[in-house]
Each structure stands twice: as C-alpha cells, then as structure tokens.
Amino acid sequence: MRTTLLAAALSGAALFAQPGVLTKQDLIKYTPDWKGERYEDGRPKVPDSILKRMKAVTLEEGWAVLRDSGFSHQYEDGWLSIHPEKVLVGRALTAQWLPGRPDIHKVIAEQGKKDGRIGAPNAWAVDMLQPADVYVVDHFGLKQDGPSIGDNVGNAIYAKSHNGIVYNGAVRDINGLKELDDFVSFVRFYDPSHHFSTLGPRLNSTLIGINIPIRIGGATVMPGDVVLGRDGGVLFIPPQLAEKVVKTAEFIHLQDAFGHQRLREGKYTSGQIDTRWSEPIEKDFTAWLEENQDKLPVAKEQVLEIIKERRK
Q1: Which option is the CATH number for 5-45+78-237: 3.40.228.10, 3.50.30.40, 3.40.50.1820, 3.30.70.270?
Q2: pLDDT tens digits for 102-118?
Q3: Residues whose CB is less than 8 angstroms from the CB of residue 268 and which lie 6 or more positions away in sequence, other chains included
C-alpha cells in the first residue's frame, strides 16, 4: 500500500512524486560531512544556537570562510528585499520549478492527489516547512504570470517557519507580505500577476522537485544549508561549516574591538594592528579578553572558550 507523500518524506521509505527527489538515504549520502542531528527526512539540522549566533555574521566574514574551505559558488545578490533592515537566517528547504510542460505536469499532479497532497503544487513544499526553515525556491526568474507566493501562501510559510524566503522569481501581494514582521525575504521581482500551475492553455510552471539540490543564480544550494541573507546578498553555508563561520566571525569581532580600542588609546600604531600581531600584542589581547569578558560584542560563553584555547 502506498503511503502518503508526507509520510514517505518522513520515513525516507519512498520518493516524492517529483522526479529526482532525494530520499532520506540520498540526503545523508550527499551531505557526508555533516555529523550532527538530522530531520526525519535526512536533512541536516544545524542547532538553533548556531543559527542565533549566525545573525551577527557579515557576508564578508562568511564568504571568506567558505572560499578558504573550497566552496566558491555559495553567494548570490541582485535581490529585491522585504524588510531589508533585518537579517535572514535559517535552514534551507528547497524547491524547483520548470517552465510548464503539460505531460510531466499531469503525472506529477495526479500522483500528488494519490499521495494526499492538499491544494496546488505551490503549497506542497510549504506543508513540509519546520520552525526556522527558509524556503529556497528556484522559479527560473519568472516574472509576468510567475508569482507562486502571495500574501496567503506567505502567511502559510510564516506560520510554519516564522521565517522568510529566498525566491528566484516574482512574488505578488507584496504589501501584505510586508505586514509580516519577520518575513525577511529576498526575491527577484514584485509583479501583480499570478502563476498558473494547473493544466490548461495558460500553464506556465511545473513543480519538479522538493528538497533537492538547486541553483540560485550562481550559487548551489543543498537542503539543510544555512541561509544568511543581509545587506542585499544571500550566502548559502554548508551545514558542516556553519559553526566554523560563526566562531571565525566572533573572533574577528573581538580582534576588531580590541584593535580599535588600542588605536584610540594610542598604545599601538595602525601598522602594528593591521599586520600579523607580535607576541606582546597577542598576550595583551588575551589579557584584554579576560578583563572585559562581560562587556564584549560576543557572548561571555564564547569569550571564555576563546580564552581557554589561547591559554593552552
């Protein structure tokens, strides 16, 4: 007996209706460097504590760590932002659309009904969202007659994840989406039209995959990547590098705070601070961390970890 599509996703026992969707076993196979917790469908689940700390990371800091680790295609910009003054952080749940093709679309739609899917295909992935997820969608940059997300779907996304989206396409009802305080989102366009995802002469989009590797502009995105969106750009961080990104950024913040203070005090020159630090400056930095551990731009718990490492 066939299980429902959602049950199949949770158990990893079967494929989704869409071609090329990764099973639980495949998601584990293609994210071999992640050794932490996973969702029931196999998607990496970076801890909430890391996501919270990620909000203070800049794009430059994250990009440098990824680049040094061999990941050169994880950044994309050129977005229209919703709540651009805020930072988007969360775990990626991916979906991919293709230009509408009736024969494939018919098979997917019929299978979706058999598997217990509710509503149109643009709602299917939304039903799978978990708290702190970011819905990352490749809608192939479609604008006119392209929006598959408006204020109704946006509210459904927000209710499930309490988070925003990264959407390579157009959204509609943007005024309604802006009313959601934490719907921090990066989209390509606003357009008042709406997409047609049901069979007929105006079919223009076919949902081809959920929780699969996708391309967003020049970036490759895997399910479970940590999304960092701010200042007009989005970085997709492989889960195994998320903690490294956070720790590296926090250390940089502390170095900057120390360096700026010592420069204002006139204790060191810019040449001494802007180059590799001497041993006396390194010792001064460690002592400064200990003296100011309750007043720094990084949580005390992390400051104490850094001090412990520096005292070894």
Answers
A1: 3.50.30.40
A2: 898 888 888 888 878 88
A3: 259, 262, 281
